[in-house]
Structures are given as C-alpha cells and as structure tokens.
Design goal:
This protein has one domain. 73% of the residues lie in helices and 0% in strands. The protein has helices at residues 2-22, 28-40, 49-78, 82-105. The longest helix is centred in the middle third of the chain and has 30 residues, at 49-78. The termini are far apart. Keywords: Membrane, Transmembrane, Transmembrane helix. This is Membrane protein. The chain crosses the membrane at residues 12-36, 57-76, 82-102.
Length: 121
C-alpha cells in the first residue's frame, strides 16, 4: 500500500516538474525573436567583460532552452524512480541559471553627478 501511494505522489511530482519546465515554451516564439535581435545588435557601450558574458549567455541560453527541455522530458518519461525526477528537475535548474544570467546581464553603472541634484530653475 505504501509503495503504491509513494509511486502515485512521485508521478504527480514528475508531471508537475515537467509542466513547470514546459510552461516557458509557451512564450518561446516571442523570446526567440527578442534573443535574435539582441544577438544581432551591436553595442558601442564599453561594459565590463562579465556583464557582456552574462548578456550573451542569457541570449544563447534562451535560444537553447528547447534543446534542454525536450531531451529531459523524454528521458524523464522513459525512466522510473528518482532518476526520472532528476531529469525533470534539470530544465528548472537551467531556468534558474538563466535567471541569474538575466539578473547580472545589464547591471547599470552608478555614475552619480552632483549637478543632477540641483533644481533646474
């Protein structure tokens, strides 16, 4: 009885993880367009190499997301046990990594000018 209940909850968890990982694919056509435009653009702003790396990693990562999700989806459906849960979790970890790249891709520089605080009148 306990094994059947455990398997039932494991199935629900597996499908929940796969659903959460698949939801970003609904917006993928729009993301592809934006990422391609971002990769095609040329910048004249000199930024630190780390922020440029985060920017390119985010843009390429959003383009590659289906290449991460689809194999993990098929592997998670084909396996049984905790290995299937690990495969279902990989796309969510990739999304967390993309979030970190997004968070650090365009950090503005803090140039404070004392003249900005003055009243224009």
């Amino acid at each position: 009885m306990d094994i059947a209940i455990s398997t039932h909850y494991q199935d629900y968890l597996l499908w929940g993880l796969l659903l959460l990982g698949g939801l970003p694919l609904l917006s993928y056509p729009f993301v592809v367009l934006a990422s391609l435009m971002g990769l095609a653009s040329r910048t004249t702003i000199n930024v630190h190499w780390f922020y440029r790396l985060m920017n390119k990693s985010f843009l390429w990562g959003t383009l590659a997301y289906p290449l991460v999700y689809i194999p993990c989806y098929w592997l998670a459906r084909g396996e049984n046990g905790s290995l299937s849960l690990a495969y279902a979790t990989l796309p969510l970890l990739f999304l967390a990594l993309l979030y970190l790249c997004f968070r650090w891709m365009d950090v503005p520089s803090k140039n404070k000018c004392p003249d900005n605080d003055k009243d224009p009148d």
